[in-house]
Amino acid sequence: MLFRSSHRTHRCAGIPEHLCVLWDEAIQEVFRAGQPTELDFEVAGENTGRTFRFKLVPEIGPAAVVNHVLGIATETTATREKLRLRTELNDGLRGEEAIRESEERFRIMADGCPSPIWVSNAKGENQFINRKCREYFGAHGGQIGDEDWRRLIHPEDAPEYIAPFLLAIRNRTPSRSEGRVRRADGEWRWVVTTAEPRFSAAGEFLGHVGITVDVTEHRQAQERVRETEERYRSLFQNIQEGFSYCRMICESGRQPDFILLAVNAAFEPLTGLKDAVGRR
Description:
Order of helices and strands: EHEEEHEEHHHEEEHEEH
Largest sheet: 5 strands, antiparallel
Radius of gyration: 42 Å
Oligomer: single chain
Number of strands: 11
Shape: elongated
Strand order of the largest sheet: 6-5-9-8-7
Distance between the termini: 112 Å
Helix content: 25-40%
């Protein structure tokens, strides 16, 4: 679209009223400076806006004075729409790249962890297991299916081990399970598995991320302590001589004393002390 202006109002060209001020200033500048300029306008339509680029070119007369301004209007709606779509596409690609980088950082971190780590979806299905998990359970295919990991749990422990996780899926809450699982070498090992729910930025439940810690040695140590205490308790109660367990009390300016903490069954008959526990 071409038109000329010689200080005539631009309203004759059908330009919307709200753009008049900018248009007036642009034309006056061209008349003053004698240099071309460009303006981008958006004109509202019934369904969507249309964009135009106006190029204002001065027409210089013989006396080196601007007599007229030539206006060239080009609709840029399609170009701007393509630019918008390209920008959205680029933003989307950058977003996907950021997601891939984040997932790769998590994978590197998870593979460096000395304990099995896993990620499940909202249905409880495994989506990722780290290197230690693959080695620990012998998952040579890179994944452990839903039925596969259930078969790894000791039959006696399976109900109590699985139930908290299924409840956590329904309630979208953390879970904790303890039980025996079969390691890749076939040995049954005691483990504690904890899981935390995952949510998207919009609050959508995505599943859980969990870690499984082998506590076999810890349980074995506890069992040895319990067995030692049981043997001591049996010896303590069945010895024929009077036996007591006491704690020394040392107070400033006084003779050392002691308080009885425990006595065996033969202690009271042999010493004649009744209700001796707790006495000095």
